[in-house]
Amino acid sequence: MRILIIRHADPDYEKDSLTSRGWKEAELLAERLSGETFRNIYVSPLGRAKDTASFTLRKHDMEAKECQWLREFAPRIHRFEAEPDSIVWDWLPQDWTKIREFYDKDAWTSHKSMEDGQVAKEYDWVVSSFDEVLFRHGYERDGSYYLVRQGNEDTIAFFCHFGLECVLLSHLLNVSPMVLWHGVCAAPSSVTTLVTEERRQGTAIFRMGSFGDVTHLLMAGEQPSFSARFCERFENAHQRHD
Q1: Angstrom distance (rounded) from CA 131 to CA 135
Q2: What does the alpha-carbon distance between residue 168 and residue 42 come to, in Å, rounded to a whole number?
Q3: I want to staple 73 with a disulfide (CB 3.0 to 4.6 A). Which of 41, 63, 164, 226 is the partner?
Q4: Residue 156's closest CA among 9, 42, 33?
């Protein structure tokens, strides 16, 4: 089976929709995906993800299944004294890299700030809901891999958000999402592809073949949006610092 995880196009967060640039990105994305045959498409309930998916759904004459658990992963946590609550995955590198548990796929939610924010509860809800979808498509989670109940070469797509994408990848690849949240960046409208490998009959893992691919933008002469990244150099005043 093949999984496409697609981040929404350039967002207008105030309107929970897309910028004019985002609408163009979504249209180019749909052109790229026009040759795909989808078994199912799943979408976040947030407007920016649904708007991104709309072009692709129209081209394929399909309806998406809206899933609450595909919304942005955004538990609020209190990191340090005298700091306001913040989203769980927005830490400064000089802070999170000192906490060894954050590199451990089993221990990253044990830090007090994570426990107080009930991050593990939200994470478990998302990945268990994701596994329910995979089960319906023939793959049953068993520890850190999958049992093949009904092997197939179907393609399914998930239109969602960067933080949530890293949660899904952390589950499929068995790594801490903290490393992904802070170490990779999927540009708006990018496509991440994973495919099952069944080297022995009845068992499978998902291997990532591409991450954050924006070929559809580059081929059209469009540069990827800077959204989700921070300044390349501190002196770059026009780029986001916080």
Answers
A1: 6
A2: 13
A3: 164
A4: 42
Nearest to 144 by CA among 203, 93, 86: 203
CB 2 within 8 A of CB 157: no
For the chain, list residues with pLDDT below 50: none
- Rounded Cα distance between 186 and 165, Å, is 9
Q: What are phi and psi of 43, to 5 degrees?
A: -140, 145
Q: Answer yes or no: are the C-beta atoms of 207 and 186 closer than 8 Å.
A: no
> Residue 125's CB: how many other CB atoms inside 10 A?
12
Tell me the per-residue pLDDT of 153-199, one tens digit each, with 9 for 90 and over: 999 999 999 999 999 999 999 999 999 999 999 999 999 999 999 99
What does the pLDDT read at residue 116?
A: 92
Q: What's the 3-state SS for the chain?
A: CEEEEEECCCEECCCCEECHHHHHHHHHHHHHHHHCCCCEEEECCCHHHHHHHHHHHHHHCCCCEECHHHCCCCCEECCCCCCCCEECCCCCHHHHCCCHHHHCCCCHHHCHHHHHCCHHHHHHHHHHHHHHHHHHCCEEEECCEEEECCCCCCEEEEEECHHHHHHHHHHHHCCCHHHHHHHCCCCCCCEEEEEEEEEECCEEEEEEEEEEECHHHHCCCCCCCCCCCCCCCCCCCCCCCC
> Which pLDDT score is estimated for 90?
87
